[in-house]
TrEMBL record:
This is Tetratricopeptide repeat protein. It comes from Sphaerochaeta pleomorpha (strain ATCC BAA-1885 / DSM 22778 / Grapes). InterPro entries: TPR-like_helical_dom_sf. The keyword Signal applies. It comes from the Bacteria. Residues 1-21 form the signal peptide. Keywords: Signal.
Length: 252
């Protein structure tokens, strides 16, 4: 019965937001066509081979001109920089000096993306967020990241990356409430409804994780377990998922 109720709750959330939903777009979809980027995320999120991840990032920077335009090339390089920077603060021993070097390079590149663009907002939100993860003393970086996420979503509310950034920020807001969790859940579900068959693997893992955590915080433990395990199956190296799954195990 409990699982049935949980399923109905998810269905209701989905139906309520379907009628007014706008078509979800994805300006980052081009990244799926770059094998080296997929390989980099496999190393940073699955295999955990730091030296191999560094090598792949170098290969991305050395890629010859291709079908990517100049802006897409910059976006790709920034995504590679930030993916490796995140890995730097998760591996043992941590590679903080190298993470800072990568973030500095990414920030310089982000300055070429123009003002008030989707790519600029999202890149700088990610960069500032990682600076804050390196040290909570970088409070201004955390605030900047939050503001940039807000601008990305306000100006580009149908973009997959902007939606996921905003939904995730709502899950972890200091002023988190049941309503904000439900709203975040509905955003994840709408992206899944519209884009499931075309989402990049990394975005699908993000969506599954977000739904799972939202369900957990709302007390829907059955769906929380299912979605968190689905996210874990896509990318196994995620300490946060491990913590939530461990808590769920205690309830069994």
């Amino acid at each position: 019965m409990r699982k049935t109720i949980a399923f109905v709750l998810l269905f209701v959330f989905l139906v309520l937001h379907t009628s007014a939903a706008q078509t979800v777009t994805d300006s980052y979809a081009f990244l799926q066509g770059i094998p080296l980027y997929s390989q980099l995320l496999e190393e940073t999120k699955n295999t955990g081979n730091f030296e191999q991840a560094k090598q792949i990032r170098s290969e991305i920077l050395a890629m010859p001109s291709s079908s990517l335009d100049a802006t897409q090339r910059v976006v790709l390089e920034i995504k590679a920089d930030t993916a490796l920077a995140r890995m730097c603060i998760e591996v043992e021993p941590k590679q903080i000096p190298y993470a800072k070097e990568l973030l500095g390079e990414a920030e310089t590149k982000a300055g070429t993306l123009g003002k008030d663009t989707l790519y600029s907002y999202c890149a700088l939100a990610d960069i500032n967020g990682i600076w804050y993860l390196i040290s909570s003393l970088n409070l201004s970086r955390g605030i900047a990241s939050s503001k940039l996420i807000g601008k990305a979503y306000t100006n580009f509310p149908t973009e997959t990356t902007a939606i996921l950034l905003k939904a995730n920020s709502m899950l972890y807001s200091p002023s988190i409430s049941q309503n904000s969790i439900k709203e975040a859940l509905s955003m994840f579900l709408e992206v899944l409804r519209q884009k499931k068959d075309s989402l990049a693997k990394w975005d699908l893992a993000n969506v599954y994780s977000g739904i799972g955590i939202a369900c957990y915080k709302l007390g829907d433990l059955g769906n929380a377990s299912g979605y968190l395990k689905a996210a874990k199956a896509l990318y196994g190296l995620d300490n946060m998922l491990d913590e939530y799954l461990a808590e769920l195990e205690k309830t069994n």
